Amino acid sequence: MNILVTGANRGLGLSFIKLGLEKGYQLFAGVRTLDNKTTKALLELKDSYKNQLHILQLDVTDEQSVALAANSLKESGQTLDVIINNAAVLEEREQTVEELDIEACMNSFNINTLGPMRVVKHFLPLLEVGTKQSIVNISSNAASLTHAYSGDYPYGLSKVALNMFSEKISRELKEKNIRVYSIHPGWMKTDMGGEQAHLEPLESAIGIYDIIEQKIDINSVYIDYQGKRMDF
Ligand code: NDP
């Protein structure tokens, strides 16, 4: 399987890369910046997996960067089976509407919603025709309207919009047999989730690979990392 992961240099993104390499897949690791500090963990992996790991500059806020990354794959004759839109930001956690930083809201939408839209727009032509093709948008329980809580305006709203994007493309891509998921990965011990979180990102990645590999029967778009339906 050939898999693209955005935000692949740390957190859940890096766990997708490590686990995918162990499974023998080809991994295309999108990173915002190609400097040695950002890509250190990936470069270390490349020592052991040089034929399976491909590092791409891919800033999801920059359409040209996304288009160039997609073109570089096209030109080398590559195709994809899975797109994992993982890159995201959780802005300063303001609590009240008076504290709202509108710039932060725009930044969150730019990364968390428009980022996956740019990636799907440019990488969709690379998705092979087959039976295991999927687009995985990493969402959050913060996107549930049913279980909404106060605060986290930029993040919550941007992930709700991401869920709508997932729902819409799942309809558009049904006839191409491309599965689309918006997945809550659980509360994970990453820079974003913090130390008190319940899950190691690797556990979440294991569950999400089970979904991608169709080991679990799924019939909804918004689900958690174990394949359980989430309430929109
Ligand atoms: P981290 O904050 O640990 O990592 C975020 C990743 O996104 C980094 O690799 C970062 O790159 C990348 N990124 C940010 N902006 C851009 C950009 N413009 N272009 C490309 N890459 C970018 O997050 P997690 O690993 O915790 O989160 C992964 C996913 O899971 C996210 O979608 C998040 O919303 C979701 N999630 C996480 C939860 C948690 O508990 N951690 C809970 C629910 C959902 P860089 O290093 O360059 O900044």
Automatic annotation (TrEMBL):
Pfam families: adh_short (PF00106). Signal peptide: none annotated. It comes from the Bacteria. CDD domains: carb_red_sniffer_like_SDR_c. The lineage of its organism: Bacteria, Bacillati, Bacillota, Bacilli, Bacillales. This is SDR family oxidoreductase. It comes from Anaerobacillus alkaliphilus. One of its GO terms (molecular function) is oxidoreductase activity, acting on the CH-OH group of donors, NAD or NADP as acceptor. Belongs to the short-chain dehydrogenases/reductases (SDR) family.
